[in-house]
Amino acid sequence: MRIDLHYYGGVPMTDAGNAGPVPTDRRYGNDAVIAGYRNLEHWAQTADRLGYDTMWLTEHHFQYEGYEVTPNLIQFGQHLTSITTRLKSGQAFNVVPQWHPLRLAEDYATADILSRGRMRFGVGRGTVPREAQTLGAVIASGDNAMSAELDQVNRELFEESMEVIKLAWAQERFSYSGKHFTFPPPGIPDRGATVTELTLVPRPLGPVEVYQPMSPGKTLEYVARVGHKGVIALAPPALIKQVWDGYGEIAEQHGRTLRPGQDRTLNIHTHVGRTREDAFRTARDGHDEFCRFLAPYGRFKTYAAADGFAFQPTLEQSVSEQVMAIGSIDDVVDTLGTYRDLLGLEEVMLFPDLPGLTREQMDEQLHLIAEEVLPRLGIRLPAA
């Protein structure tokens, strides 16, 4: 099983938890952002030494609240590959409607070459109107209740952009005409002629696997139909299994017969202690800060205990519903083993990045997972 890590990439936060400031009252300056970047550099080097495969980061913009402060994942990821030996760097996820599709295609191709093939490409539709509208995407996806009516436009922009990106990567000469994009625009003069086709310079080293979050409905159908690698997170096992199997069934309908875990990735929060009490003590504030930050976006509405769109779970609810793997070494082994057997896991993104964890606490987590948890699942990382 391939073992990856996922980081939201926040600033150091010494007062995380329900007793701290409400998320919208938090405000951090550039020094705190830089300190967050230095932590990510350090954790990438720790992950590299231990043998984790890929470190994924998350794109967000204008987050003075300090939770997600890495706006350009390709640029940051290329840097991480330059200070590590073999660790790959992934984007979870490039918010495609906020990009010009050809600039995104160029930037990824450049980083793929400069990193000597150590980049992984992930894409999403976006959920934050503050970002989307400021950056010219007009809207964010309907995952946010404030923008649900514009979800279809977002979906159209995303799907056309992906067609453009993959076409530009695959063909030495290309043109494209759709509802939202036409490349090249008609009538461009160039040295006595009119431009009718384009060539992307550079193009990636080879075929690019595309990772995308999947959820029930249109997004699941699209991800499986076009052959993107589906990523699912923050749901109880029964719902994850439903989406997981649905992906395989749709892929089969479109001519792709897959192994039970092929082309799908589970993303799961993971925090380990020597005892369950130790794990709960060190995870509680970070869990609660993470949940109250994201609850208004409906991130936890799939919990069985959810009582509305903005439901905020307790740590005990996240653990009892097996949405997160938090507890003793035995607890985490049991939860990850349950998912491995349920889904036939071939890849997993472990998410250890709880707000408020110090550099030293995160290092301890990476060591405990690599040296205590994974071997009991029959997994040994290359350097562990």
TrEMBL record:
Signal peptide: none annotated. It comes from the Bacteria. SUPFAM superfamilies: Bacterial luciferase-like. GO terms for molecular function: monooxygenase activity; oxidoreductase activity, acting on paired donors, with incorporation or reduction of molecular oxygen. This is LLM class flavin-dependent oxidoreductase. Pfam families: Bac_luciferase (PF00296). Belongs to the bacterial luciferase oxidoreductase family. InterPro entries: Bact_Lucif_Oxidored, Luciferase-like_dom, Luciferase-like_sf. GO terms for cellular component: cytosol. The lineage of its organism: Bacteria, Bacillati, Actinomycetota, Actinomycetes, Geodermatophilales.
